[in-house]
Amino acid sequence: MIYGIFSTILFWLILPFWLIAGLFNKKLLTGFKEKLGFFKFDNNQKKSIIFYGVSVGETQALEKILKDSKKEFPDKNIIVVTGTKTGQELAHKKYFEICDFITYFPFDFPFCVKSFLKKTNPEMICIMETEMWPNFIRITSSKKIPLFIINGRISDRTYKSYKKLSFFFKPLLRKYTKILTQSKIDNDRLISIGANPETTINIGNIKFDLTSGKNPPVLESNGRIIIAGSTHSTEDEIILSAYTKIKNEFNDVKLLIAPRHPERNEFVYGLIQKTGFAYGKKSNSDNFLDKDIILLDTMGELSSLYSVCYFSVIGGSFNKTGGHNPLECVIYNKPVISGNNVKNFKDIYAIITNYEAGTIVNNEEELYNQMKKFLSDENYYNNSCMNCQKVFDENSGATGRTIDEMKKVLF
């Protein structure tokens, strides 16, 4: 209660500064009205099941559980909420036929949360991975709305911080109806912070239940395509340098670069122009027929484009970001290469490298050598492709187990 009063006062104090800052940085006002709770939704007097994925990665991973929930709970509205603009764009593009409504997660101020809950009429709320919003948790619990964490995880850095503040987080974790974790390590960590051991269950990672696209894109290419997916600052230079060396040895090789954040597109395009190779943008070109390097500057296409690559280099792993989900490529039986900072997906990478469906490299030289090995050793490459299927065959099923736990509460 005290936190709710304090946060409300804080909101009104910072609001004028927030609005002024938004005039100079429009990102601050993205979804502002919806996050305040000002949106329209006709729920048709039906209860809703709400799924929250904060950004692109979490929203992408919701695909199968959304489809399965639509089938298993046909009398409920299925709602997806996100915390970021990119997550919102992806949700509208991928899930507009599955979901009854898509909007932003509310600001964690009492009046925003109450407005959101009143309009969406939830019978259950599922939070993807681990998001801790005190007012949202408290108000949801007071209204006796079942609240789940699904695919729960906690990073090394977050765990250290939460452990020190377990006196604050324990009461919040205890308000969750169930916490369904993606690994034993995550399960043990959350319990050690204060989660109820009787309702905190390790059921596996739903990201292994990723499904490949039904209609993968057709690109007319006269060469093998390498995709550098979800790249961050300083990584494009490394990848372009390695590609330049590779191109001198394998003239048929093409490169597609997909920056993680759209605001970096023009900067990366400038780097591409300096290479001297033929280049273009995906928004201006439908194929690789006459291009060596192409910039993927469109939203929501990367995951399906992995289907046409020879192999991929996963960004966020050559700096301190912590990597991105390699399974989006592996699902198409295409191997991956990543840098050595994969802390956000270390359990997944442990499985992928154990099955030899992907490789972790430490620097640009090792990246070049691994790229060369995939391109020059056909037997090695084909075995890596076949090993990709084993990753999913032996680690899938968490989505079904999540649905089962939801049913225990709903029925």
What's the short version?
The chain is α/β, with parallel strands linked by helices and 411 residues long. The protein contains 18 helices and 14 strands. It folds into 2 domains: 32-205 and 397-410, 3-Deoxy-D-manno-octulosonic-acid transferase, N-terminal domain (Rossmann fold, 3-Layer(aba) Sandwich), CATH 3.40.50.11720; 224-393, Rossmann fold.
Question: Can you put this structure into words, describing what you see?
Answer:
The protein has a seven-stranded parallel sheet, with helices on both faces. Strands 10-11-9-8-12-13-14 form a seven-stranded parallel sheet, with helices on both faces. With 411 residues, the chain is of the alpha/beta class. It has helices at 2-24, 32-35, 56-61, 63-72, 85-95, 110-120, 134-142, 156-164, 166-173, 184-193, 235-249, 265-273, 302-305, 327-330, 346-354, 364-376, 378-393, 398-410, and strands spanning 48-53, 77-82, 101-104, 122-128, 147-152, 178-181, 200-202, 224-231, 253-259, 279-281, 293-295, 311-314, 336-338, 358-360. Strand 6, helix 10 (184-193) and strand 7 form a beta-alpha-beta unit. It folds into two domains: 32-205 and 397-410, Rossmann fold; 224-393, 3-Layer(aba) Sandwich (Rossmann fold). Helix 4 crosses helix 18 (398-410), helix 6 crosses helix 7 and helix 11 (235-249) packs parallel to helix 16 (364-376).
